[in-house]
Amino acid sequence: MSDLLKIAGKTYQSRLLVGTGKYKDFTQTRAAIDASGAEIVTVAIRRTNIGQTAGEPSLLEYLPPEEFTYLPNTAGCYSADDAVRTLRLARELLDGHRLVKLEVLGDPNTLYPNMIETIAAAKVLVKDGFDVMVYCSDDPIIAKQLEEIGCCAVMPLASLIGSGMGILNPWNLQIIIANAQIPVLVDAGVGTASDAAIAMELGCQGVLMNTAIAAARDPVLMASAMKKAVEAGREAYLAGRMPKKLYSASPSSPTTGLIA
């Protein structure tokens, strides 16, 4: 494939990024990741053992870093200081790993991002040598500021984390995409395959999800569906949809040479 996702100088065939939380066990996590075809997997450093808790099963045993690109995230952080501290710990645990997902939350009820703290953390992390993919609001001005700070990707929410409400903000997403010189990925709010396809049809370069797969009745089957949806949405975007024509029908069959 020549149409590859490029983030922080590295290319990936899959445009679906998948979280590793909320599954019943690490075995199901591995099965879902395999079905999704994802090459980048996110891990919440505060909630998942990747070696910081001795004697307990480690995600590294089920998803070896030599097979997947890890994306440590700051889920559960409510301040810039906590987020920076968490990602510095992740870098130590993963032998100098630089690619990270920054999210600084505003409150525990909505999990909406606190953009003031997010921007503060992004400045520190970029200066500290991290490649920062950042969860953000759907504000085009904020998204551009994060790009100018030096983040390698912006990831505006489609709707609230874990809500499954789908793409509620297509117009703002399109503005962000049109103005960005770095990858734009939808992060949060995807509920089913059609949501992922819509995100890709809008021009997003990828989709990051966790709950939509892990909370499905059959997570492995849903992971497979998401893989297909992201691929189909990307192909539709590249193909270019036909124009919408209100009250203007256009027959698909010839209108000349009809039998009288």
What key phrases describe this protein's structure?
globular, five-stranded parallel sheet, three-stranded parallel sheet, 260 residues, alpha/beta, TIM Barrel, 10 strands
Overview of the structural elements:
The protein has about 260 residues and is α/β, with parallel strands linked by helices. The protein has a single domain (about 10-240), classed as TIM Barrel. The chain contains 9 helices and 10 strands. The strands form 3 sheets. A 5-stranded parallel sheet has the order 5-4-3-10-9. A 3-stranded parallel sheet has the order 6-7-8, covered by helices on one side. A two-stranded antiparallel sheet has the order 1-2. The longest helix has 21 residues, at about 220-240. It is globular, with a radius of gyration of 20 Å. The termini are far apart. InterPro entries: Aldolase_TIM, Thiazole_synthase_ThiG, ThiG. This is thiazole synthase. One of its GO terms (molecular function) is thiazole synthase activity.
